[in-house]
Structure formats: C-alpha cells, structure tokens
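Task card 7
Instruction: Convert sequence to structure tokens.
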Amino acid sequence: MCYYFWILNYMVFVILITNALYNKQNSYSAYLFTKAVIKKKKIVQNIFFYRDGVCNANKNIRFDDNEFNLIKSWKKLSIKYHINLYLCITSAKKRGLIFEKKNNSYKDNFINYNNKNNIISNYFKITTLSTFTKSILTCDRLVQF
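Output:
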C-alpha cells in the first residue's frame, strides 16, 4: 500500500500540444493543466509542440497589455520547473518558422536564435519525433491538447 502511494506521488507526465494558441483554447488549457500537475507535486518531463502547436513558439505574436501572454508563460514555466519545451522540426518547417537554405549541409542547418530573422523563441528546443517517442517510453501519462 505504501509503495503504491509512492508511485502515484511521482507520476511523470508528457504534454503534447497540437493547436496554435490563436486557433483554439487547447494551448491555454495545456498550460493550466501543466501548472495543476506541478501543483500536485507530479513531474512534467517535457512539453512537445507538434503540428499547429509549433506556432506557440513564434516570438512575433503580439499580445495586448490586458491579454495573457502564453509564450512568456511557457518560458517562465520552463525556467522555473526545468521543463523542456520541444518543437517538431518538420512541423516548424511546414509552417514557416524555420527557413531552409539551398545548401543543406549540417553547418547551415544550425539555428541562430540571435538572428533578427529568427522567429522562434529561444526557450524552445527544436527536435524530431524520435525525441517525443523516447519520452513516451519513459513517462507514466501522455496528455494531448
């Protein structure tokens, strides 16, 4: 009985976000859910942004002063609780967040976050679906928004 309680206490979550923050409320719900999981002393291993969800990393989206800035909130959550914010590279390329050069060498694919033309917030890490797959294997719960 005590062992079962210990397992429940340290449950590991992976969050999958598939919608842009301006299309539906899913991104906001994912943020609130993540905060609730942390408040319950559970672990959020990482948050993976896939399909339209990669638009959550677009630093050119502007919020009014009276609006909740979800992009800054993801950043603060990532820093405070050491949560990885992963972007699917294929989804980001399809939505114009990553510009491909004609020369596809390894050096040229490096993303310079300080470049003025870069539109991805520097707290998001660009990765492939294999990272997401590996995190599914090591988590207790996968929750999609």
